[in-house]
Amino acid sequence: MIQITYVEHNGIEHRVDLAIGTTLMDGAKDNMIPGIDADCGGACACATCHVFFDAADKVRVGEPGSQESDMLEVLEERHDSSRLSCQVRVAEALAGLVVKLPASQR
Description:
single chain, alpha+beta, Ubiquitin-like (UB roll), three-stranded mixed β-sheet, 18% strand, globular
């Protein structure tokens, strides 16, 4: 299990242990983290699972693919380290990751 911390827009933190291979979106939904709607169920088609990270974590999280980048383009609160949580799989390298949720997803 890998510990991930989700931070709501208001600063409330949720530390959860996630299995390797699960997505950050599924981890949020399974642990009832507010702010991850995941309307498309993880199909990279809605951007309601938008998250972002500290700039230093961008390398270990990785870059979005082309479909994900297209979805991210429509977001008002996009950051340089924005990702769709449905497209980020938990791996050993993500241990201790802090996932931030935008205010637009309350």
